[in-house]
Amino acid sequence: MKKILTLLAMSAMLASCHVVTKEEPVTENEKAYEAYGVMTVTSSGFTKEDTRVKVVLKDEQRLDLYMFEVKFSEKMPVTIDMLVSGIDYEMNGNHIHFACDDIVPTAGGKPYEKYVIRDLEGYISADSLCLSNKYGDTPSIYAGALVK
Prior knowledge:
By secondary structure, this protein is mainly beta. Helices cover 9% and strands 55% of the residues. The protein has one domain: Porin, CATH 2.40.160. It has an eight-stranded antiparallel β-barrel with strand order 2-3-4-5-6-9-10-11.
C-alpha cells in the first residue's frame, strides 16, 4: 500500500510540472504560423531551446500568440503554456509586424497576472518568427524558424 501511495504522489508531482493552455483549432477563416526556436531571458542569459510559438491571425487586425513550455530560469520547477490574445498586427506583403503592451496572458485557462506582457514587438517573415517582450519585469527575446 505504501508503494502505491508513493507512486500516486510521484505521478501527481510529475503531472504538475507543466501548466497546459488549451490550443484552439484554427478555423478556415484564420491563418496560422508555427515556429520552433530559442527563447532567451536577456537579463540572465538563460536560454530555452526548442520553444514552440504559434501565431494565429484571427481577423484582419488581431492575432493570438501561443507560447509553449516556457521557462524563465533553470530553477523554475514548471514549464508554462501561455496565450496572449488580441495583439494588433499589420501585414505588408509577406511580412507581418505585431505589437502590444500591458496584456495579461492566460496560462492553464486562467489569467496569469504575475507576468503581464509588456513592450511586445515581433514579426513574421517568409522563414522566421522573432519577437521581444517583457514578462512582468523579465525581458526576453525569441527567434524561431517557421515550420513549412
